[in-house]
Structures are given as C-alpha cells and as structure tokens.
Amino acid sequence: MTMKKTLTLAGSDSSGGAGIQADLKTFQEHGVYGMNALTSIVTMDPDNEWSHGVYPIDVEIVEKQLTTILSVGIDAMKTGMLGSVDIIELGARKIDEFKLETFVLDPVMVCKGEDEVLQPENTDAMREFLLPRATIATPNLFEAGQLAQTGPLKTVDDMKKAAIKIHELGAKNVVIKGGKALVHDKALDLFYDGEAFTLLEKDKLDTTYNHGAGCTFAAAITSNLANGKSVKESVNEAKYFVTAAIKHGWRLNEYVGPVMHGAYNQFGNEN
Ligand SMILES: Nc1ncnc2c1ncn2[C@@H]1O[C@H](COP(=O)(O)OP(=O)(O)O)[C@@H](O)[C@H]1O
Ligand SMILES: Cc1ncc(COP(=O)(O)O)c(C=O)c1O
Ligand SMILES: [Mg+2]
Q1: Residue bearing the CA closest to ligand 1, atom 5
Q2: Ligand 2: distance of its center to the CA of 120 in Å?
Q3: Is-contact 62 20, C-beta < 8 A?
Q4: CB under 6 Å to ligand 2: residues?
Q5: What is the pLDDT of residues 97-130, one digit of tens each?
Q6: Hey, whose CA ends up nearest to atom 10 of ligand 1?
Q7: Residue limits of the Pyridoxamine kinase/Phosphomethylpyrimidine kinase domain (predicted)?
Q8: How far apart are CA 49 and CA 128, in angstroms?
Q9: 183 pLDDT band (50/70/90 cuts)?
C-alpha cells in the first residue's frame, strides 16, 4: 500500500481547530499522508479573552523540517501561517529546488476574531515570492483585498477584479472566499482560472463555530490535487467538505468553536 503524500508549511493552532492541526486532520480524512513543517506557534490567553500570541520558529529549524520531508518526497504542498519573510523566501527556494509543481497558497494574514494583520511585511513577500509559484491561492475576502491592493472587497464584481489581479501576479488559479464576510445571502466563493469565473455557492450557515474553515478548505484542495483531481474539481469537492465541517462546527469553549473536520465522512454529503 502506498499513499499520496502532502506537506503543510504552517503554524500550530494550540486550540486544535485551525493551522497544521486542521491540515493534518483534513489530510487524514482524504486518505493522504500528511507531514508538516511548523513555522510558528499560536497560543490563546484564557485570562485575556483568548487573545492570540504568535511565536515564529527559527528559519534554520523550519529548513531542517523541510529537508526531512522533501527527502521523502511529496505529491502536493500547502502553506498557511508563515511566521516571517525569511520563512516565505525559504518556502519559495524549496519549491524551486525540488520542482514542486502542486502548491496551494492559503495566504493567512488574520485569525478570525482578530482584526489586525499579524505580520504585514509578510504580505509583500507572499506577493513577490509565493503567488508566482502557486497552483492556486485561496485568500479570504480581506486577504484578497490586501494581495490585490484593491482595498476592501464588498461585491462579487470587486472579487472578480481582485481575482484578475492576483492571477496577474502569478497564481495560476484563484479562489476568493466570500464566506461569512461577504454581504450576500449565500456563502459564495469565486473561482478563477485565468479564463473563466465560476461561482461556488452554498447556503450560509448561521453559526460562529467556523474556526479553521479556511485552513480546512485549503487542505482539502491540497489533498484532492495530491489524489490527482483537476484544480476545479478539487475546489468544488473541497467546498462540500468544508460546508459539512462548518455545519457540524461545535463549541470548544466560550471563545471558540472549531469546524468538525471529519463531518463529511461521518455524516455524508448533506449539501
Ligand atoms: N457561515 C458560513 N456558512 C457556510 N459557509 C461558510 C461560512 N463561513 C465560511 N464559509 C465557507 O468556508 C470556507 C472558508 O472560508 P472563510 O471562513 O471565509 O475562510 P477563512 O477561515 O480563511 O477566513 C469558504 O468556502 C467559505 O465560503
Ligand atoms: C496557526 C494558525 N493558522 C491559521 C489560522 C487561520 O485559521 P482559519 O482557517 O480560521 O482562517 C489560525 C487561526 O487561529 C491559526 O492559529
Ligand atoms: Mg484563513
């Protein structure tokens, strides 16, 4: 028995719903073998309203992890939270060195519930080093506005303009997640492959228990690509997967409710 192998270069969410924890759980649900190179550790303070602390890992240690994983070989890779510009440049270098062709860039800039960009200098570095190497980029509404430098996105038309810009910056495909942030009666994402726009629409779920939805979506796309599916098919299936995960999101404590990463396999496709 062999398995397809995936790599996530991302941060640790100590609360378990997002970050590498979401990625590895999602890889498992897709029957691919997940490995991770940790870039940063995120903690939450229970005595200060769950406020986030972000602790980057030394770039040398990140490189050692990548050396381990890439010596084995991978079928697809994703990035999530990247702690520093050095780590972003390292990721780009490794993509080139190992000729990694299947790369999902989830340009994590903010955690839900937090409203400031954690590491603004990383946005420029992602634009320069990672977008040109991405098979697909998966920004949320806010991140797409930052990458495209178009300012806040409010309508589907704004999303289209930003998608074109992000494609011009080098990402071969883009999916902008309207999610809960877009004022619209559906949870609407816009997919663009450089030629045509496709809208992915599901009912908007009335829940705040969606922590880790973005990571789960990108990790599902990565798994589907590793399993040999086309980019469009991978995105479509990931949308079903994440919708089920959000539908079964649950209360971890008074501050956070993670998605249920295994919901799609456990309860089937209800959407
Ligand atoms: N309340 C919701 N109901 C249904 N789908 C949602 C909801 N919130 C987010 N989604 C979907 O979950 C996926 C992740 O999006 P989002 O939560 O916006 O990403 P991020 O976690 O990166 O901010 C997208 O497909 C989005 O449309
Ligand atoms: C390590 C890490 N990565 C990514 C995220 C973003 O998560 P989401 O999937 O909700 O966008 C978070 C949020 O807490 C995080 O802690
Ligand atoms: Mg996200």
Answers
A1: 187
A2: 16
A3: no
A4: 10-13, 18-19, 42, 80-81, 108, 111-112, 211-215
A5: 999 999 999 999 876 655 566 667 889 999 999 9
A6: 179
A7: 13-259
A8: 35
A9: confident
Integer CA distances (angstroms), 192 to 136, 137, 174, in order: 9, 10, 5
**Closest alpha carbon to 250 in 90, 44, 78, 15:** 15
Say which residue the tokens 């798994």 belong to.
Answer: 223
pTM above 0.95, yes or no: yes
ipTM of the complex: 0.98
Query: Amino acid identity, residue 147?
Result: L
The ranges assigned to domains in the chain are: 5-267
Which ligand has an atom closest to residue 80 CA?
2
Question: Which tokens sit at 202?
Answer: 């599901």
**Which of 104, 114, 242 gets mutated to test ligand 1 (max ligand atoms within 8 A of its CB)?**
242
CATH architecture of the domain 5-267 equals: 3-Layer(aba) Sandwich (3.40)
pLDDT digits (tens, 9 = 90+) for 36-72: 999 999 999 999 999 999 999 999 999 999 999 999 9
